[in-house]
Amino acid sequence: MTDRPPVILQVLPALGTGGLERGAVEIAAAIAQGGGMALVASRPGRLLVQLRHAGARHIDLDLKKKSPFAVLRRAKDLQAIICSEGVDLVHARSRIPAWAAWIACRRENIPLVTTWHGVHEAKWRGKKLYNSVLARGARVIAISEFIAGRLRSEYGVPESRLRVIPRGADVREFTPGSVSGERVQKLAEAWRLSGEERIILMPARLTAWKGQGVLIEALARLRSRSDAHWLCVLAGPESDRKFSRRLQQRVHELGLEDHVRFTGTCTDMPAACELASVIVAPSLRPEPFGRTLVEAQMMGRPVIGTAQGAMMETILPGETGLVVPPDDPDALADALNSVLETDEGALDWLAEKARAHAIANYTTTLMQARTLGVYDELLGTSLRTTFEEHSHDQ
């Protein structure tokens, strides 16, 4: 490395609003704060304004097309960017962009870092080959120990290249009592709440594997077990219209219309957590991480997840929340009833434990610092030190 600031290029399909994209914006901000130059190549999206505000520069590049010819063309485009911008390292967060980046980095002899964000199951050899590019980085970042275990066992990633860096939540944004009454009131009105209900919140897109169907069945059982006045809010966009219709039909069949609200995407999760009595994530499949439950714990709210995947890391059962077997409405109903019937003193103790656990392990700042540390390993730079000094001064 010369004395010039290191240039880091992140590549991803588009700047949407998912965890992958939010992570890219957060790392771009950290690169800028650490004294580097942050570039992001992708299609534009809703996070473009935030990316620019973070001090990064966006390069419009379509990295979504899956054909081999498209990947080769994009690899050539990335080579041109690497050369013209003096890129020192590329960080890929998705499989198609990673294939193009892997080719470009090999040709230009610069390091590639990859992050494995999803579960990415591989039930046939071709799919495993397609996934394998995310295991080919000079450093491979897993967002949980659960994902790291798969990378070790299924893809043979050695410890020398593997780094576990969980995603994080912003402790400044997710602080109990920090949300204005106006924001909470606005959301309560949007959800048509009376203020008397205990709110069971499930923030997730409406798709079968997230477990809304199991939650609806659990609510039917909870109605006969709990004397509490409760209301369940399903806050998430429709990603499967047929499933959404089946779900609403099941609510009608069980007579739960007065107990369940479908509210669409929630854009103010801190306010949602303030309103909630318990946040649930009854996923049927293992989650690679589970950011919403970390955010909820940071807000001091009880959480209920399923006993699989990364939820067994982000939740300390019996201390910061509860875990139940997947696809078990009876167990979920019992867990919900347990939280709703717990006295305030016990909930306060749980809130303190939950927040302390989240702050110790899952802050955005910690995720940013650890990622910059990976760049430093490969480039011999001091991005992490500068970033941490900047963070402490704020």
Number of strand segments: 13
What is the share of helical residues?
A: 40-55%
Which structural class do you get from the secondary structure elements?
A: alpha/beta
**Strand order in the sheet with the most strands:** 3-2-1-4-5-6-7
H-E string: EHEHEHEHEHEHEHEHEHEHEHEHEHHHH
How many DSSP helices? 16
Could you give the distance between the termini?
A: 29 Å
Number of domains: 2
DSSP strand content: 15-25%
What is the global morphology?
Answer: globular
Largest beta-sheet characterization: 7 strands, parallel
Low-confidence stretches: none
Q: By CATH's scheme, which homologous superfamily of the largest domain applies?
A: Glycogen Phosphorylase B
Query: What is the CATH C level class of the largest domain, in words?
Result: Alpha Beta
Question: What is the radius of gyration?
Answer: 22 Å
Q: For this entry, what is the oligomeric state of its chains? A: single chain
Q: Please, could you describe this protein's structure?
A:
- The two termini are 29 Å apart.
- A 7-stranded parallel beta sheet has the order 3-2-1-4-5-6-7, with helices on both faces.
- Helices cover 47% and strands 16% of the residues.
- The relative contact order is 0.12.
- The protein is built from 16 helices and 13 strands.
- The protein has 2 domains: 7-168 and 363-393, 3-Layer(aba) Sandwich (Rossmann fold), CATH 3.40.50.2000; 181-361, Rossmann fold (3-Layer(aba) Sandwich).
- The chain is globular.
- The chain is of the alpha/beta class and 394 residues long.
- The protein has helices at residues 19-33, 48-53, 68-85, 95-108, 125-132, 145-155, 181-190, 212-225, 241-253, 269-275, 291-298, 311-314, 329-341, 344-361, 364-379, 383-393, and strands at 7-14, 37-43, 57-60, 89-92, 112-116, 139-142, 162-164, 198-203, 230-235, 260-262, 276-281, 303-306, 321-324.
- Strand 12 (303-306), helix 12 (311-314) and strand 13 form a beta-alpha-beta unit.
